[in-house]
Design goal:
With 361 residues, the protein is α+β, with helices and mostly antiparallel strands. The protein contains 13 helices and 17 strands. The strands form three sheets. Strands 9, 10, 11, 12, 13, 14, 15, 16 and 17 form a nine-stranded antiparallel sheet that branches. A hairpin with a 2-residue loop joins strand 13 and strand 14. Helix 1 packs across helix 11. The longest helix has 16 residues. It binds adenosine monophosphate. The site of adenosine monophosphate has 13 residues, from strand 14.
């Protein structure tokens, strides 16, 4: 089976690394000449709206998937005429727009921060009067890694905020005084079978994910699975879906979903029986899903801007290096380490060892 992937970054690369042993082949459509997935499959170097090359991709592959959600809707609609596309155009339409996704959470009875649709500064002023400060203004689409958003703490932060985010459609959210951030990696197969990985506790720095630690027996696991099950069913979703939550007052508030394999699930490559990448491929290929059980105590640390020297990382016990082969650049995710240890105490020690390498000059 040959799988077409829209986007040829590290997520595409890790999909191919997981799918190759299953006998799958890959083609990536990505305009970047240095797309890092090209080492693992065919690279169709073209714009996401280039119909000739989209048609070429559709002709060559058995099905198409995505490694990012902001693919133009027309691209998905065009491809869907010729080849099965998973997740569906409708799933992408909802998940890439914060207004649609929060409205869906509300409809499904899933708690969210208070929110309002913002189309103008007047809308924003009125929403701030209703929701209060602090609040977070976010662009409805195209935001990632903390980009396209602004925390409003004082009335003067509000005055120009709509223009400062580019005068594009936005959403205002009440600021959640969360005690932690967790994510649930969920999978739904073409058969309707679902499975869920253990909840992951995530730590961000400057809006970018830094550390993910897989939990074992988290008290909110069942609640998170219930919420995710509602979304998967509503969208008749196929593939991996990442669900991000705020932990607050002993419960969960939904932040956002990502209709794809997710950075907070990278630990599953060595830390779970079957990784999120393999399970995404199993789901879209119509295969049975693999076990999501944790293997030992596991965590993931992102390498942002640079990867520490290979000889130093590989000298550490229980640590698995994933180097994406991308040029180093400040703020860019260029690799990660998965840690898989016998117990939680050892995991804490190993996290400190990797952090020491990250922080060393
Ligand atoms: P997002 O792009 O929506 O995942 O937001 C990036 C990060 O900003 C989150 O991981 C939180 O740390 C923070 N954040 C986003 N929305 C809120 C909110 N409504 N209240 C408090 N913090 C937030």
């Amino acid at each position: 089976m040959k799988i077409g992937v829209i986007g040829g970054g590290q997520l595409g690369r890790m999909l191919a690394l997981a799918g190759t042993p299953l006998g799958q082949q890959f083609a990536f459509l990505d305009p970047a000449p240095d797309a890092c997935a090209q080492a693992l499959g065919e690279h169709i170097r073209a714009d996401y709206s280039d119909r000739d090359h989209l048609r070429q991709l559709a002709d060559e592959v058995d099905l198409v998937t995505f490694e990012f959600e902001s693919v133009p809707a027309e691209t998905v609609a065009f491809l869907s005429q010729f080849v099965p596309v998973y997740p569906s155009a409708e799933s992408l339409r909802i998940a890439r727009d914060r207004w649609f996704e929060k409205s869906m959470f509300q409809e499904l009875g899933i708690p969210t921060p208070e929110f309002a649709d913002i189309q103008s500064q007047e809308n924003l002023d009125a929403a701030v009067r209703r929701i209060g400060l602090p609040a977070v203004l976010k662009t409805r689409t195209l935001g990632y890694d903390g980009k396209g958003q602004k925390v409003l703490r004082h009335p003067e932060d509000v005055q120009n905020a709509f223009a400062e985010l580019g005068s594009v459609p936005c959403i205002l959210e009440g600021f959640v005084p969360f005690s932690g951030e967790v994510s649930l990696i969920a999978v739904r197969a073409r058969s309707g079978q679902t499975c869920f990985y253990p909840l992951v506790h995530n730590t961000h720095e400057n809006g970018i994910l830094r550390l993910s630690v897989a939990s074992s027996g988290h008290p909110l696991q069942a609640l998170a699975e219930d919420y995710a099950e509602r979304v998967l069913g509503k969208l008749e979703y196929v593939g991996v879906l990442a669900f991000e939550f705020f932990e607050v007052d002993g419960g969960l508030k939904a932040n956002e979903i990502a209709p794809r394999v997710h950075n907070s699930g990278h630990w599953t490559i060595e830390g779970a029986e079957c990784s999120q990448f393999e399970n995404h491929l199993r789901a879209i290929a119509g295969l049975p899903l693999g076990s999501t059980a944790l293997v030992g105590a596991s965590a993931m640390l992102n390498f942002i801007g640079r990867v520490p020297p290979t000889e130093k990382i590989t000298a550490l016990t229980d640590v698995h290096l994933h180097h994406y082969g991308k040029a180093f650049k400040a703020g860019r995710k260029v690799g990660h380490a998965t840690l898989r240890c016998a117990d939680a105490a050892t995991l804490r020690t190993r996290i400190a060892e990797v952090e020491a390498l990250i922080n060393a000059e």
